[in-house]
Amino acid sequence: MPRIIHVYEIPERWIVGTVGEPGDRSFFIQAKHGRRLISIAIEKSQVAALIERMNFLLREIKRENPHLLSKPLPMDSNPLENPIMEEFVVGVIGLIWLAEKEMISIEFQAIDQSLQSDDNGEIEFLGEDENGPDLLKIIVNPAQAQSFTVRATSLLSAGRPPCTFCGLPLNIRGHVCPRANGYRR
User: Fold this and answer.
1) What's the CA gap between 44 and 25, in Å, rounded?
2) Omega into 83 within 30° of 0, i.e. cis?
3) What pTM did the predictor assign?
4) Does domain 5-180 have CATH number 3.30.2450?
């Protein structure tokens, strides 16, 4: 099948959201522009890594061009739009500062089992090469990226509370705590 590249430049809405209860949530990235809506599945750890790298990039942008982040956007707290039909599962994420446009490009590449990993176990990011897995490219201004990170940070912290003894997430009925020699807490 030919590769599909979805491009959303300055989308009306670009968010991360979840479906399910804490401890059993599925994470999704959604982008919407006009009647076009795309949902892709992403791992919680990938969202955390994206937030970390995006916050680093935003700090650098603010240091170099403070005017680009002078008007913060309000956080979008609305739920994901239905129906949530995932186009693909994210494998690799690319984050690029487009200096000439003063925009940020975030590229989400689908998992493709046929791609070979290098000696470090990392999978090659193909960008817009015509062969390879599907790709979602979102181009946003720094204020939109900042709004995304605020929502994503809030979403990640809304999960299960940690055990005060070991720090692992608690289930509704407690958990078998390794620091309590296997006793339930």
Assistant:
1) 9
2) yes
3) 0.80
4) yes
